Queue: 2 jobs
Job 1
Amino acid sequence: MNDALKATLAPTLKSWIESANDPRSDFPIQNLPFGVFSDAVNERPRAGVAIGDWIVDLAALKDARLIDAHGTFSEPRLNAFIALGRESWRAVRVALSALLARDTPTLRDDAALRRRALVPRETATMHLPVEIPGYADFYSSKEHATNVGSMFRDPKNALLPNWSEMPIAYNGRASSVVVSGTPVRRPNGQLKLPDEPRPIFGACRKLDIELETGFIVGQGNALGEPIPCEEAEAHIFGMVLLNDWSARDIQQWEYVPLGPFNSKTFATTISPWIVTLDALEPFRTATPAQEPEPLAYLRHAGDHAFDIELSVDLRPEGAATATTISRTNFKLMYWSMAQQLAHHTVSGCNTRVGDLLGSGTISGPTPDSCGSLLEATWNGQRPVRLEEGGERAFLQDGDEITLRGWCQGEGYRVGFGECVGRILPARSLT
Ligand code: CA
């Protein structure tokens, strides 16, 4: 990391956009996450960066010749920009940081340019930030894997022998990844009721969330050319929050022997702002100790976890107050993102710009730090209480789930914003 890039991370840095200096804002000048937005004035989706309560319109700044990325900012997805490579992402970050810094007059004192280049975030519509060619979902939280293994197999042997040797994953469905705010329809599917010889077809009765993060591949690899673990982080553009909606009853019946299918493919929600690994650099920390030592292709020196606080809120339809049903931290994850990407490609599998890799459900060691209702309620046996009365074993129609994530700095925080989804009733079967 060069000096210009390091300077964009200084905790003392302030912006002339005052809302960015609020210590509670997810989007201080140290963050500068990328997304795609439109608004009533200009309905064309285009690239933007969040700063305080505003979005910087990158296409407008390009037209004013203040930044450059070969016209990619006018496109409705970030893939072409990301494909320019890490030096280009970093050049834009450095230029934006300088432009938005308190003492830089270029944009600050040009009212006409400000009107073109700044859009209030509350008036904007956010879009899926990248075209996602492929999506894989991991299973990298030891606490989560232990909880699920204890519940459905054997508490004494909760982890299968392969779990501590490799980041376990399956290939998910990219076509149904949606941006925060998109409603999620309860799926219908095969349900196998206890004591019945055959399944019935009907609406999922055990609809659940999975609190995850995901990362976006910024530089792919050619078929047959694995990405070494030590180099893997350079291939990552940034991170998002991810809710891997799960139909537990459909899953339990279908998952043997090839894993989840209909129970996971109906929707996966991601947050709209991609927080770059550069912005997360000050929050780098050690991953939990790995025992046994991983095979050589999964080894990397140094710190590869990130200290990201996470929370899940549930708000029933019509309720004024949401209930926080979980608080946990990304740094608990056993396998790092670098190890996940190295493992994904070690067979020679190619990845492409925009590919999404989910962390797997992130659970802590206590019931109030579980990343799914399955674990928090122990498969529905001990429902969670809600602030305004009532309880939940699994999600009901109209429930709204909000994931949040942020790195706490001194006097500022680098946040992810929100990842929201509300449950719609299942399609009628008649
Ligand atoms: Ca998952």
Job 2
Amino acid sequence: MKIFLDTANLEAIREYNDMGLVDGITTNPTLLSREGGDPQKAMKAITDLIDGDVSLEVIATDYNGMVEEGRKLRGYGENVVVKCPMTADGLKACKKLSSEDIPVNVTLVFSPSQAILAAKSGARYISPFIGRLDDTSQDGMTLIEDIIEILSNYEYEAEVLVASVRHPMHVVDAAKLGADVVTLPPDVLGKMLKHPLTDKGIKVFLEDWKKLKESP
Ligand code: G3P
């Protein structure tokens, strides 16, 4: 399973990229606005820093605007994936950009039927937002299960990119289902690393080693 970071925070991207854990990045307007500054510069900096796929989202909501913006975003680097929303215009733009070899991530997917249409439109990635479904008392992980099952019946290019991930168990459950990619806020990746018994174990090992060295 590929791990993407869901952030526009360069410091966090550098930290986990240096550990070799980052296969790609997803951003969106909210994540960019959280960082402040010039979003264009931030998107270019992320694209330059990361070798893997970097999803950059269009702001336009009409077909022509999305295609034009998508081509411009792709100009930032060969690793740019254009993020288009799951709308009629977004799917049309997905088809057009994909035909120009510009990969598209269809975002804001909340149902299996939307995922089918995104796959048919040539999406490279389909992004179901599981946390936001959980927030409305629907089971986000069931959506992942459904989409994986549907895609496995056909030869679509699309990969399932699990988004709106809120905690490590989302990641574990997505991995059990065989999801292609999960995109994680940096704090969730940090939590995946940690276990109190690991910290306790290291402490005890070091104390015991010290005793050994102090004994006559
Ligand atoms: O990748 C999508 C993500 O940024 C949305 O997450 O937590 O706002 O639902 P959230």
